[in-house]
Design a protein that fits this description.
Helix content: 40-55%
Number of strands: 11
Largest sheet: 6 strands, mixed
Number of helices: 10
Distance between the termini: 45 Å
Radius of gyration: 29 Å
Strand order of the largest sheet: 4-5-6-7-9-8
Order of helices and strands: HHEHEHEHHEEHEHEEHEEEH
Structural class: alpha/beta
Shape: elongated
Strand content: 15-25%
Length: 381
């Protein structure tokens, strides 16, 4: 009986150089997984979020349109609070500041490309350590902020002062004239009217009034400033109030006086790091005033319209370092009739991304150590 040969036929010459395919090594798998995680965290996650949230809002078609002739587009930046040198770890601080700055700048450029705003407004708390910084530190922080939030020359940039910039929220961090003057050297006046197209922006600083009861002596500067703003910009059809703190934090007397004097259709604030919305009805506020202060005269001209309503929007933070679960930039489009379209542009959670990196790094170290131990054992045999 003839036995069949079990020798495989020789490969043709063109396949002679091919080597058998082996499964990838553990090290290769770790490297491939690391690259996949990097690409997902830094690119794919934002692309999915943008597609599922930014483009699904009712405002998407408006911002996608290039017709800006009859509207003003505004981009709001809430509480960026760029990190300083004092509260960050000495060596690790270089990494944490770099990562936080990169996050702010990258997504700011994304929303700029999406919204194409005419006006960009930074809503206060620009610097995390602004109020406690010395002059040299403040100068460095201010220049860094301006580099992160650089805009084209045709875009108006407005800075609002916050308690982290000039103090005033706590007794341990007082508001002083020196801090205000230092802020104004870099970012402009803390309280002024700003005209743009058919809109009057009223930039106000409510920090001096957060912990003080109403009195004519204390409020005389506020009264004069409100009157001056109203006279300078009364001819604009759309009026918008800008402040770091909400109007209601100024105490009821001032609350009524601000609305009655300026009559803003809209107000924007920040400070809490969360989003919010509130309607201020002047008539209802006057009714509340009469209940609380029955023996006092209301701070309003009885001849003025008392049915005025102001819509106030609270801007969430755009910085993951504030520790809140959701970060966003806010965008609005206002037409000449005063119609406002408003949307929030949500951002990826950086802490979740960093958590993924940390878990992967820990598992990768364990796997590589296990591989090394196995190989060492085999060599000893």
């Amino acid at each position: 009986m003839r036995l069949m040969s079990t020798v495989s036929p020789a490969l043709p010459p063109r396949f002679a150089m091919l080597k058998p395919l082996y499964p990838p090594s553990i090290t290769s798998l770790v490297i491939i997984t690391a690259l996949g995680l990097l690409i997902y965290n830094e690119y794919i996650e934002f692309m999915l979020l943008k597609h599922s949230q930014w483009t699904q809002t009712s405002a998407h078609q408006l911002f996608a349109s290039k017709d800006t002739e009859n509207q003003v587009r505004v981009l709001f930046v809430g509480d960026p609070q760029i990190q300083g040198y004092r509260d960050e770890p000495a060596l690790l601080g270089y990494v944490t500041r770099w990562d936080a700055d990169r996050y702010l700048q990258r997504y700011f450029q994304e929303v700029m490309d999406y919204v194409h705003p005419e006006v960009v407004i930074l809503m206060g708390d620009l610097l995390d350590e602004g109020s406690i910084a010395n002059d040299w530190e403040f100068d460095v922080y201010a220049q860094r902020l301006k580099q992160l939030y650089a805009v084209p020359e045709n875009v108006k940039l407005i800075y609002v002062a916050g308690d982290n910039d000039i103090g005033g929220e706590r007794a341990s961090d007082p508001l002083t004239d020196e801090k205000i003057q230092r802020f104004e050297r870099h970012f402009g006046s803390v309280a002024e009217p700003i005209q743009h197209n058919f809109i009057s922006f009223y930039k106000l600083n409510f920090l001096p009034f957060l912990h003080t009861q109403h009195s004519p002596k204390v409020d005389v500067d506020l009264t004069d400033k409100l009157t001056e703003m109203q006279e300078e910009s009364d001819n604009k059809p759309v009026k918008i109030l800008l402040s770091h703190n909400a109007i209601s934090e100024t105490m009821l007397h001032r609350h009524i006086q601000i609305l009655q004097t300026l009559k803003p259709q809209y107000a924007f604030c920040a400070h809490t790091h969360y989003t919010g919305y509130l309607k201020h009805n002047l008539q209802e506020l006057l009714g509340l005033f009469k209940k609380i202060y029955p023996n006092e005269e209301a701070p309003i001209d009885p001849q003025e319209d008392q049915t005025f309503v102001t819509e106030e929007y609270r801007i969430p933070t755009c910085s993951y370092r504030m520790g809140v679960p959701n970060m966003a930039y806010a965008a609005a489009s206002i037409d000449k009739s005063g119609q406002l379209t408003y949307t929030l542009l949500w951002l990826p959670s950086r802490y979740k991304q960093l958590y993924r990196y940390a878990v992967f790094a820990a598992l990768a170290v364990i796997v590589l150590i296990w591989k090394w131990c196995v190989q060492s054992t085999r060599r000893k045999r």
